[in-house]
C-alpha cells in the first residue's frame, strides 16, 4: 500500500489490502494456543469439520486423512472462546466497517475457519472466484462481479504465510482470454505464476490481508511449512441474500443454536449473529444447500 492510499482506497482499487496489528495485545498467544489445540484435535480425528486434502471447495467430505483447514472454530463444542472474542473485537470490526462502508449495526456474522499446513501432502487450490463458476461467459461474470460488494474476507497470519496468490484489480473486470484459459484448465502441476497478472501475497505474523473473495485467487499448501492462518469473512446486510449461497454452503445450522449465542462476548456480537440467522431462515438453508463451485 502506498503512502497516498488509504486502506479503503487501496482495497477498492486493487481488491485487497494488508493491514498490521489487528490482534489486540495479549490475545496473540491465546490464539496460537487455541489453534494448536484444535489442529491437534483435527489431525487426531476428533474434529469432523475440516477441509480435506483433495477437495478444494464444499462439500469437503471425509475421504482423505490429511487436512488443510479446520472449519467452524467458534463452534461451542470446541470450547475456545478466544476466537469469538477476536472475531468481534473493536479494532477488527472498525477495519471491516471502513472497508465495507457500513456501520456496526449493518454487520452480519459469517464464517470463521483456520487454514493449516497438511502433514504429508502438498496441495494446491486452482485459480477461482469464490462465488462465480469458471465456465460462465463474460456477461454473466461481469454481472456477478458487480453484485459482490457486500462482504469482505481476510487471512490473519499467526506464522509467516506466503500461500495466497491473487490477480490485483480482477475483482472488477472479467478474465482476459489468457486468464480464462488458466482458470478453466488448472491442474496441480501448473505454477500459480502462470496466471497473467498474478502476484504472491506474503503476510507476516500479526498481519491481515483483506480481499474481495471474487478476486481471482488461488493458494499453495506445503506440508513442510507450518501454517496457522485465521480465515474469516463478515457481510453487510445491505447485500440482502446476495451472499447466502456462498456462506450457507458451509453448513451453519449450529450457529442458530442457543448454545452458540451464549458463547458470544457481548450484545453487539449477538446482534451480528441475529442478522445471519435472518438470512439463514429466509434462504431455507436447512432444506436446500446450493454449492458455489465444483470440486
Automatic annotation (TrEMBL):
Transmembrane segments: none annotated. Residues 176-196 are annotated as: Disordered. InterPro entries: Phytyl_CoA_dOase-like. Pfam families: PhyH. SUPFAM superfamilies: Clavaminate synthase-like. This is Phytanoyl-CoA dioxygenase. Residues 181-193 have a biased composition (Basic and acidic residues). It comes from the Eukaryota.
